[in-house]
Amino acid sequence: MSPLQKVLLILTLLFLVSVDAKRKRYIKSPRVAVPFPIFGAFDQKNPFLGIKNTDFETDFKGEWEVINPDSGVSAMQITLMPTNKIIVYDATVYRTSRLRYPEGVPCVPYIDPNSKQQLEDCFAHAMEYDIETNQVRPLKVTVDPWCSSGGLAPDGTLISSGGWNDGSKSLRYIRDSCPDCDFRESIDALQEPRWYGTQQILANGEFIMIGGRRAFSYEFIPKEGQKSTKAYFFPFLYETSDLDENNLYPFTHLMPDENVFVFANNRSLLLNPNTNKIVRTFPVLTGGSRNYPASGSSALLPIRLDDDKATSLETIKVEVIICGGNTPDAFITAEGQKVYLPALQDCARMVITDPKPVWDTEVMPSRRTMGDALNLPDGQILLINGAKKGTAGWWDAEEPNLEPALYNPDKPKGQRFKVLNPSGIARMYHSTSALLPSGKIWVAGSNTHNTYRDVDKFPTETRVEAFYPPYLDPNLNNYRPQILQDSSDKNLRYKARFEIHFSVPSGGQITKNDIKITIYAPPFTTHGFSMNQRLVVLNSGNVAQAIKGIYKVGSMAPRFPGVAPPGYYILFVVHRGVPSQGMWDKNVVLVTPLFIMEMLSCSTSYC
Length: 607
Ligand SMILES: [Cu+2]
Known about the structure:
Glyoxal_oxidase_N; Gal_Oxidase_central_sf; mainly beta; 4 helices; Immunoglobulin-like; six-stranded antiparallel β-sheet; binds copper (II) ion; Methylamine Dehydrogenase, Chain H; 46 strands; 2 domains; single chain
């Protein structure tokens, strides 16, 4: 045997031993530490890197399923929690719902505004919805969270802010799920009443609270038990307020440079929340009003850290999309004359980070007001719920828009929309939706009245549906990745590489270009806006096949908290457009060293 043959033999034996060891590790040992080095990641010499396979195509137009025939509380405000429960609440003002407090829970005394009598409210206006069993558990709110806002704090606590009347300056907190877990309320924690305001997470994990009815200001949400000390006058909200407002629930998005993009009515700017300065303003978006009660919707397009150009803070591209709404006079026309003007039928995109940004408008397949715009794990955007005529407000809309529209931001203009199968249930004012880790869409709510109505043209909705987007086509299951959670990393640290292991039934050669790792920040959704929602496509390396059908990919966590603020994310592996189930049960959390330290010393206000 020649020296070369000897070397080859030794290498072959070493390789076989290593493969066998890896196989045993996969079979026997659930673990958290990384079993493989990320060899080859970011290797530009790999010949497969240049091959770009197209996404798998499907004709599946989606499917609807009623998953709970009566959840009890109409889903006006929702957020998905890391406990795999959706926290749902509407308003105490109705003094009714379809869910009573269980035996032993005291009712809430209140003074009836008409009779001035002291009465008792024994109905739940909040609940916890289990997305695995579709069962609900009543929760208690005592001051009114009607048309409020909220967000998921970095430690997994839902912080809900504002509302109406006795709830307008309140904060509510809930994190854990247990038989006795319930909201903690802080009644007078904000400086100004915040009804129809927006709560936006900042790069440091804290929240800014912007606007609200007759609140032309913003303030910062204090730690639990403390009070906000100052409201900052924000003339922009005064300037963009029509006779019928049309600038409530402003659309806000956190930018990589840690400024906050704020869009109200038809205008937008960047606010520096540290210096309280307006950093820049943007062109007016013509065509109508976009915020409440005209109620269009807004999302960020996926932030592409896998873009070769996204190498620094300055070169990360951020693009916003705003869809639908109505004309400035649509609300007063609906309220006064019961004439429901057609909703807007355009979407407009603008690259916020461009030195000379312009709005680029395109036509939607149908008109929409009060719809939600949800980022999907595969990078597309789902427009769902809402109406074709009228505005937000009680009895102010007609013609539910039953057909979701799927928007592919990467296709050429004119080919981006796909109309999906319709629901049979109207989801108009006070309806909501949420992306689940399974990739399904949870759809609920719709209450167009000043109380719960069982019989009406648009009855108060407590039915919950699941919508299966096209990527859940069963014909794609052979290509669907499955994350091997036990052997994948779950704590993502800024600027640090991590490794994900997954399997694909079809097996075969899978290259870097076939796989996207995306992380999704679950939003707080109400009134057509999903606060704090974002999807980030991470920069990933080569894909290596560990053993047949099992792969590993090295990926890089975001470098800047302005790109992805600290907190919980659902992580997806997307194989040529086919997403895995999201990894989230085991708490994928993007953490700063400071956050880790706080958690260890339990010094946060939520411990
Ligand atoms: Cu409302």
